[in-house]
UniProtKB/TrEMBL annotation:
SUPFAM superfamilies: CinA-like, Molybdenum cofactor biosynthesis proteins. Belongs to the CinA family. SMART domains: MoCF_biosynth (SM00852). This is Putative competence-damage inducible protein. It comes from the Bacteria. Gene3D superfamilies: 3.30.70.2860, CinA-like, MoaB/Mog-like domain. Residues 4-171 form the MoaB/Mog domain. InterPro entries: CinA, CinA-like_C, CinA_C, CinA_KH, Competence-induced_CinA, MoaB/Mog-like_dom_sf, MoaB/Mog_dom.
Amino acid sequence: MKCEIIAVGTELLLGDIVNTNAQYISQRLPDLGIDVYYQVVVGDNLGRLIETIKLAGSRSDIIITTGGLGPTDDDITKLGLSKALGVEMRLDKPSLERIREQFKRYKTAMPIINERQAYVPDGSKAIENDNGTAPGTIGEYDNKIYIALPGPPKEMIPMFEEKVVPFLKNKSDHIIKSHTLKVIGIGEPAIQECLGKIITEQTNPTVALYAKDGEVQIRITAKTQDPYLADKKIEDIESRIRNILGADIYGRDEDTLESMVNQLLRERKKTIAFAESCTGGLISSRFTDIPDSSVSFLNGVVSYSNEAKINMLGVNRETINKYGAVSMETAMEMASGIKKISNTDIGMSITGIAGPAGGSETKPVGLCFIGIALDSGVESYSYIFSGNRLKIKWQASTKVLDILRRAILGLDIK
C-alpha cells in the first residue's frame, strides 16, 4: 500500500515551523508494511488544498493530512477533503459534546466558532482527540483511505498511535523492516563500487546509500509478511556487506561513532584526553554526551591560542615559531602534552584552519593536523576538509574519533 502525507499550513510552507509530523509518520508507516511515496506541504488555500488532495487520491492508497483542524477560518483541511471527495460536511454530535465537555473542564465558555471542529466529511468517522479540542477523521472512499490528523505533535502522535495504527494494521498484510549500517573512512562512490551487484541487482531487500557529514549510512530494507523472514533477509545482505567493508563499518542503527569508541575504551580499560584548537571543544562535547563517559574520558583542553598551547600543554615556543600553530609538529606536541598532564593511556589533539578566513596557498582553509599519543609513541596525520566553518569542525571531530577507533582496534589509519 502506498501512502501520501499532506501537511497543511502556511507556516510550514514558509519554514516558520519544522514539519516534524511528516517525519514521524514516515518513520512509523514502514512498521505497518506501508510505503511512503510522497510528502507534500500546502498552504492555507482551499483551492490548492483541494487540488493536492485530488492528486494524492489519484496516485496513493492512503492519504494522511496533518494540520488545519482548528476552529479559525484558515483551518480548512476537513472542508478541503469534503470538496475533493465530493461529499457534504455533517455535524458529528458526539464530537461536539466532547468539545463542550473539554471547555467545561477548563471552566470557560466554548466559543461558537469551536463548533466548526465537530463537522466531518460525510462518510468519515470522527477520531477522538484526548489531548485537544480538534477531532481527527478517517474514512474510505473508492477504495482509498483518507485520514485527517491535528497539527500539534502532542495531539497528532497519540492520536496516530492509539487510533490510526490499529486501523492501518488491519489494512496491511505486510511489514517493512529496516536496519542501517554506519560506515566511515570510505566515500559513497567507493562504497557503491565495492558493493557492486549487491546494489545493482537489489530487489528485496533493497540497499540504499546516504551520505552524511563525515560518514555514509547503508539502509537495508525488507518487505515481507513474516517478521522472521524480514530479519533473515536483512541479516543475509548485512553479512555480505560486512564481509566486503569490514572495519569501515563502525556501528548499526542508533549507534554513534562516539558511543562505539567509548565502548571500545571501556572494554579495554583505556582512558583518553583531548587537546582541541580548531574544533573548540566539539570532540569533548560529543564524547560527554555519552552517559558514564567519565570512565574513559578524563580531560579536555581547548587550547585555542598559541600561548594556551605553550602554557597549558607544554608545546615548545620554538616549534610554533618554526612550523606554525597549524602543523604536524605542533599537533604531535599537543597530543603528547595532553596525555602527560592528564595521565591517560591516549592523548589526542587537533589544530587547523576552520575558516572562512586564515587560509593561505600552503595552508588552505580546512587543513587540519590530528595528533595521537600512545605509550608506543606519537603520530600525526593531515587532512583537508571542505564546507563552511561548522561543517569543517564537525568533519574534523569525526575524523579524530575515527582515528581513535582505528588505533584502539590496531587498524591502519585512513
